[in-house]
């Protein structure tokens, strides 16, 4: 009888160990999710933002986003309340050039661009470069009727858009399903819900993201990637001198 119990116990423990071993590394999951957000090392994106309050229109805007490598980006606001602004994001800092301003102003990537969308949401599309990831205690969950891996992300760089994130990645497909963003104080800042990836040109990407305020969920901003074009940009363009040209 003791032998039978020992055999069953070893079998259960062995099964648990195998199950744990089958879990992907958090860094692998993060890389998979990133691949649905940014695939090209250097590219130009056309992005539209649309905000609502209590389901009523509350502003819209169009952006041109230029990405180079892992930590260089330019966000140019083409229309809307902030039209004319250009934001430079590098591994050292984030700067904004206001229309008719003589000097750029240093800002944080968490600063809101429009509605619930922050500059970092457009200029920092790769989480793996800015965050360290680990599984949440409850690593397997269901979000929006989708089975997901639940990760906890902690900023590894000072220019990371958010101090902490809870990220939920589809177990079948590896695409991001939902993210919850926190301030350094631990306070809930906002959430993001990602649509299932679709084909944009030759790429399969998460085209639509909906951001909701952490306190008032009726305040939402929809971000839609209209197009992605692979382009190579000179490094000079991603400097303060280039920002002021």
Give a verbal description of the structure:
This protein is α+β, with helices and mostly antiparallel strands. It has one domain (24-243): outer membrane lipoprotein receptor (LolB), chain A (Clam), CATH 2.50.20.10. The protein is built from four helices and 17 strands. A 13-stranded antiparallel beta sheet has the order 6-5-4-3-2-1-17-16-13-12-11-10-9. Strand 9 and strand 10 (146-155) form a beta hairpin. It starts with a helix and ends with a helix. It holds the Pfam family LolA_like. Residues 1-20 form the signal peptide. Residues 70-243 form the Uncharacterized protein TP-0789 domain. InterPro entries: TP_0789-like (IPR033399), UCP028205 (IPR011220).
């Amino acid at each position: 009888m003791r032998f039978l119990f020992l055999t069953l116990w070893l079998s259960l423990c062995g099964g648990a160990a195998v199950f744990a071993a089958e879990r992907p590394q958090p860094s692998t999951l993060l890389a998979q999710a990133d691949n649905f957000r940014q695939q090209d090392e250097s590219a130009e994106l056309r992005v539209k933002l649309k905000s609502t309050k209590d389901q009523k229109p509350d502003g819209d805007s169009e952006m041109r986003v230029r990405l180079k490598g892992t930590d260089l980006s330019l966000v140019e606001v083409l229309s809307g309340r902030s039209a004319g602004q250009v934001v430079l994001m590098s591994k050292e800092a984030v700067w904004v050039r206001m229309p008719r301003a003589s000097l750029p102003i240093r800002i944080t990537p968490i600063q809101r661009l429009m509605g619930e969308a922050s500059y970092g949401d457009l200029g920092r599309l790769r989480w793996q470069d800015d965050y360290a990831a680990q599984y949440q205690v409850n690593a397997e969950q269901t979000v929006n009727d989708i089975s997901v891996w639940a990760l906890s992300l902690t900023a590894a760089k000072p220019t990371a858009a958010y101090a902490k994130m809870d990220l939920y990645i589809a177990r079948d497909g590896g695409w991001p399903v939902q993210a919850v963003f926190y301030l350094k104080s631990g306070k809930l800042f906002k959430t993001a819900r990602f649509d299932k990836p679709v084909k944009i040109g030759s790429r399969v990407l998460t085209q639509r993201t909906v951001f909701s305020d952490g306190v008032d969920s009726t305040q939402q901003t929809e971000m839609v990637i209209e197009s992605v074009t692979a382009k190579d940009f000179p490094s000079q363009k991603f400097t303060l001198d280039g920002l002021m040209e």
